[in-house]
């Protein structure tokens, strides 16, 4: 809220933004990884069209890029009674941006690193830890069965998911128990 008040007050005093933020090879649009951009969709009817109905809230205290695979995990887990002790491995398939070391870390040490750790988020979901501060708490992260389950999570990059800028690819999750996948 403070940022909004600051922005409104700054605009009242004559401050303006960067006029070329959407233009050129070093633009915000290029940094976001898209080749197609319709300026009108973003800023058309500025001041008369409001995007508030399009706002979404995060269902988990994690990076938004992690939500599609977590949604797949919740759907899979709701269809089968899963005993976390029986799990041998969990495979998360996603794009290259969220398959790097930060997202694959099975030993996140801080509340920030836990926000970006697929292994930690998967453990929270499968162990039924209520969404909220406990997900990022040091004490929760230090529980032995949380640590053990995090070690069973593997994150891999799917080539097709790397074309995220031109198509939406849903995340996926496979939970392996014994010799089968479910």
The CATH superfamily title of the largest domain: 2-methylcitrate dehydratase PrpD
CATH topology tier name of the largest domain: 60s Ribosomal Protein L30, Chain: A
Structural class given helices, strands, pairing?
alpha+beta
Distance between the termini: 44 Å
The number of domains is: 2
Which spans of ≥5 residues are poorly predicted at pLDDT below 50? none
Helix content estimate: 25-40%
User: How would you sum up the major sheet?
Assistant: 4 strands, mixed
Order of helices and strands: HHHHEHHHHHEEE
User: Largest sheet, order of strands side by side?
Assistant: 2-1-3-4
Number of strands: 4
Shape: elongated
Tally the helices: what do you get?
Answer: 9
Q: Supply Rg.
A: 20 Å
Average pLDDT: 86
β content, as a range?
Answer: 5-15%
CATH architecture of the largest domain: 2-Layer Sandwich
| CATH first level of the largest domain | Alpha Beta
């Amino acid at each position: 809220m403070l940022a909004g008040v600051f922005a409104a007050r700054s605009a009242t005093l004559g401050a303006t933004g960067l006029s070329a933020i959407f233009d050129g090879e070093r633009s915000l649009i290029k940094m976001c990884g898209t080749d197609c951009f319709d300026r009108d969709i973003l800023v058309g009817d500025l001041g008369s069209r409001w995007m508030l109905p399009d706002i979404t809230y995060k269902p988990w205290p994690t990076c938004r890029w992690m939500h599609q695979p977590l949604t797949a995990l919740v759907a899979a887990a709701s269809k089968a009674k899963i005993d976390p002790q029986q799990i041998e491995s969990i495979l998360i398939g996603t794009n290259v941006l969220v398959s790097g070391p930060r997202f694959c870390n099975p030993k996140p040490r801080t509340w920030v690193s836990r926000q970006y750790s697929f292994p930690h988020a998967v453990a929270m979901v499968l162990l039924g830890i209520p969404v909220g501060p406990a997900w990022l708490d040091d004490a929760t992260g230090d529980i032995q069965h949380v640590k053990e389950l995090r070690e069973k999570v593997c994150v891999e990059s799917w080539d097709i998911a790397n074309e995220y800028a031109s198509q939406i690819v849903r995340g996926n999750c496979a939970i392996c128990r014994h010799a089968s996948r479910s």
